[in-house]
Design brief:
By secondary structure, this protein is α+β, with helices and mostly antiparallel strands. The protein has one domain: Ribosomal Protein S5, domain 2. It has 4 helices and 11 strands. The strands form 3 sheets. A 5-stranded mixed sheet has the order 1-2-3-5-4. Strand 2 and strand 3 form a beta hairpin. Helix 1 crosses helix 2 and helix 2 crosses helix 4. The radius of gyration is 18 Å and the shape is globular. The termini are far apart.
Length: 235
């Protein structure tokens, strides 16, 4: 069946993006990233000595991520505090960001990343990853690359990028599929591949090609926000 996006976007078009660094003055680094109505902020603290001592690694540092939705970020008020979903996304975000960071430069240390979703209209984990990547760079953490993240979806049989909540809930035809990915911008290596829904294996290459087509646009938005700073701090 033929499917049109309710907001009129092309299938390979992301929502309007916005980004800014230095949004939390008392953090070592911070950033905001938005896909349309989905707004994420991230704060970085450290590197600092990891406690308890038995968790320390003399060969490399530890990236510790906490992701959560603010209770007012969704239409149906969310119960405050961590959930199974937020714990899962926290760990997935660690995996997505870790390959971009020179953690071996920080033995016995931890870098804490706090991600909060101020407003949610799908794509919260991908917006959070984008914000966290910028916040790490703003904090001066040595990185191989910024990390760019976006969700690839499927409405019935059509692949689309950057789903809205309405598109996530699509039920006609073959239904909807949500496929969040993260890419190291300098190398086009994938650090995250997830899927919620159904996708024939033979279409995986289409998903990856679509992700590599749109992530450079995310990278430009991230870079421009960081370039607006002098010496890692706001002008």
């Amino acid at each position: 069946m033929a499917v049109k996006r309710s907001d009129g976007r092309a299938f390979d078009e992301v929502r309007e993006m916005s980004a800014k660094v230095g949004v939390i003055p008392n953090a070592d680094g911070s950033a905001l990233f938005a896909f349309g109505n989905t707004i994420a902020i991230a704060a970085v603290y450290g590197p600092r000595q990891l406690h308890p001592q038995h968790m320390q690694n003399p060969l490399k540092g530890y990236l510790r991520v906490n992701y959560d939705l603010m209770s007012f970020s969704v239409y149906d008020r969310k119960r405050p505090g961590p959930s199974r979903r937020s714990s899962e996304i926290s760990k997935v975000t660690e995996w997505a960001l870790s390959p971009a960071i020179y953690l071996e430069q920080f033995p016995n240390s931890v870098i804490d990343v706090q991600i909060y979703i101020l407003q949610a209209d799908a794509g919260t984990r991908t917006a959070g990853i984008n914000a966290a990547s910028m916040a790490l760079a703003h904090a001066g953490i040595p990185m191989k690359s910024l990390v760019c993240s976006v969700a690839i979806g499927k409405l019935d049989q059509d692949l689309i990028v950057d789903l809205t909540k309405e598109e996530e809930d699509f039920e006609e035809g073959e239904g909807a599929t949500d496929f969040p990915v993260a890419v190291l911008a300098n190398t086009n290596e994938f650090s995250l591949l997830q899927m919620d829904g159904k996708l024939p294996p033979e279409r995986l290459n289409e998903v990856l090609e679509l992700a590599l087509k749109v992530t450079p646009k995310i990278f430009e938005v991230q870079k421009n926000a960081l370039k607006a700073c002098v010496g890692g701090k706001d002008e």
